[in-house]
Design a protein that fits this description.
This protein is an alpha+beta fold. The protein is about 30% helix and about 45% strand. Strands 1, 2, 3, 4 and 5 form a five-stranded antiparallel sheet that branches. A four-stranded mixed sheet has the order 8-7-6-9, with helices on one face. Helix 1 runs antiparallel to helix 2. It is flat.
Length: about 160
């Protein structure tokens, strides 16, 4: 294990309903493997592709590089490695998310909630979003682990949680 790298998983690449369908297709693939082997293997490979796809950021402090990537099958990471001079800060921001839902009668309702985002800012001004959660304490816990690894203080720009 390389102790100079930290790998921060950001989010899944597919929405929950795609993940659910992939799980159903995987179960169907397992159920029909004896009758339709080739089709079944194809369904299961496609399902595993969807179920394991996520995005993230990898920071290598020894080489002073970072990589924003998309990962497939848990080990194939596609992304460009970039150099950085130094890390200026880690910080937390709060954002308000509004979602408008329409009914059949063309009336709408707006649902709002706060999300907390963790970022890293490099000396050259580049900011990268590392994580996004609904609860501030979840973001703070992960950002503190990252902070301990790269030896940079965390700035909290988010207002107190309501």
């Amino acid at each position: 294990m390389n102790t100079d790298k930290i790998d921060i998983k950001f989010s899944r690449l597919f929405p929950w309903h795609f993940l659910f369908l992939a799980l159903v297709v995987f179960i169907i693939g397992v159920a029909v493997i004896a009758e339709k082997t080739i089709l079944s293997i194809g369904l299961m490979i496609g399902s595993v592709f969807i179920l394991t796809a996520y995005s993230g950021t990898e920071i290598n402090t020894a080489d002073k590089t970072y990589k924003e990537y998309n990962s497939f099958f848990l080990f194939i990471k596609i992304g460009k490695t970039m150099k950085y001079g130094g890390i200026e800060k880690l910080f937390i921001n709060r954002s308000k998310v509004n979602q408008r839902m329409y009914s059949r009668t063309s009336q709408s309702s707006i649902f709002s909630h706060n999300e907390y985002n963790g970022y890293v800012k490099f000396d050259d001004g580049i900011k990268i979003q590392l994580l996004n959660k609904r609860r501030k304490k979840d973001v703070v816990a992960v950002i503190r682990k990252i902070s301990a690894f790269i030896h940079v203080e965390v700035e909290d720009h988010a207002l107190p949680e309501n």
